[in-house]
Write a structure and sequence with these properties.
Elements lengths: L13 H7 L9 E7 L6 E4 L2 E7 L1 H13 L4 E6 L19 H12 L4 E6 L13 E2 L2 E2 L2 H17 L3 E4 L6 H11 L6 E8 L6 H7 L24 H13 L3 E5 L5 H10 L4 E5 L1 H12 L5 H15 L3 E4 L2 H7 L1
Helix pairs in contact: 2-3, 3-4, 4-5
The protein binds ligand PBG.
Ligand PBG binds next to helix 6.
Length: 328
């Protein structure tokens, strides 16, 4: 008891703080999201994501080599699909010569050991910007899952190590797992976006891929009929448990910082690795505040990554990966 116990003894110098530190963030924690576009020599900055770019395949190869050199070992691929290739069924998603399929090969070509995860959802391919097939304003569940399974097989054929379904359809993990097994891809993993909330933090990402949801009159829509209500906690556990039962190897909570209570809850509940996605809006907020001189960018960045890991993340998908590694 005080004054015999003085907690400040363990904070008295950097050396003792290092010695007793419970959480250490390392390059091994990071999964790097990358945005891919058609073309050559393209490296275009994304609106509201300063210092983050859409890359053509040649630039993607350069970037992946640089990431590997820095000690980063895993990427998560997203593609921006030209408007004329979008439809309601995401036909382009299963084109074996599609941009995603070529991007997977480009990464493996540049850097064979880089772990490649791919986004599986229809939104970048959909004329409605929805993650599934839309009929009469409804996003169809089972029909969408079948398509996502085909898409997953196509990514596996191109060489993806993991597919990452980000769509929140019911039962899609089982449908995807069975399709992968049937096609012999028994070693292709599934990282499921299991507790993905209908968050307002995805705005800059939807700009990056030109994938904001709309109806047939081009009126903005939301994704609340499939992504989770931010008010709910028990539902996150149920979603996650079901995805594990259906065959998910890794589960995910998304977004990050506002949902760390969910991360801890799930970490305490399940045994599989838990990924956390620190999303585009989180990145944008810090960049904007730092640009104004209102926050110390690097200090806040590291504090946030530390907080995500402390909450229980095994993997952190973050646009800050490169900048963080440079500091660590
Ligand atoms: C879409 C998808 C989204 C993100 C990852 N996959 C956006 C959405 O659900 O509308 C968001 C990532 C981010 O904001 O950084 N399937």
């Amino acid at each position: 008891m005080y004054p015999l116990i003085r907690n400040r003894r363990l904070r008295a110098s950097e050396s003792i703080r290092r010695l007793v530190r419970e959480t250490v963030v390392t390059p091994d924690d990071f999964l790097v999201p990358l945005f891919v576009v058609e073309g050559k020599g393209i490296k275009e900055e994304i609106p509201a994501m300063p210092n983050y770019h859409r890359l053509s395949l040649d630039e993607l190869e350069k970037e992946v080599k640089a990431l590997w050199q820095m000690g980063l070992c895993a990427v998560l691929l997203f593609v921006k699909v030209p408007d004329n290739l979008k439809d309601n069924k995401g036909s382009e998603a299963i084109n074996e010569h599609g941009l995603m399929q070529r991007a997977i090969k480009a990464v493996k070509n540049a850097c064979p050991d880089m772990l490649v995860m791919t986004d599986v959802a229809l939104d970048p391919y959909s004329s409605y910007g929805h993650d599934g097939i839309v009929i009469d304003g409804h996003v169809l569940n089972d029909e969408t899952s079948e398509l996502l399974a085909e898409m997953s097989v196509s990514h596996a054929q191109a060489g993806a190590d993991f597919v990452a379904p980000s769509d929140m359809m019911d039962g899609r993990i089982l449908t995807i797992r069975e399709a992968l097994e049937d096609e012999g891809f028994t070693n292709t993993g599934i990282m499921s976006y299991s507790a993905k909330y209908a968050s307002a933090f995805y705005g800059p990402f939807r700009d990056a891929l030109d994938s904001a949801p709309v109806d047939e009159k081009n009126v903005p829509k939301d994704k609340k009929t499939y992504q989770m209500d931010p008010a709910n906690r028990f539902e996150a556990i149920r979603e996650t448990q079901m995805d594990i039962d259906e065959g998910a190897d890794i589960v995910m909570v998304k977004p990050g910082i506002c949902y760390l209570d969910i991360v801890r809850e799930i970490r305490n509940e399940v045994e599989v690795p838990v990924a956390v996605y620190q999303v585009s809006g989180e990145y944008a907020m810090l960049k904007a505040a730092a640009e104004k001189g209102w926050l110390d960018h690097d200090a806040v960045m590291i504090e946030q990554l530390m907080a995500i890991k402390r909450a229980g993340a095994t993997i952190i998908a973050t646009y800050f990966a490169k900048e963080a590694v440079q500091l660590l």
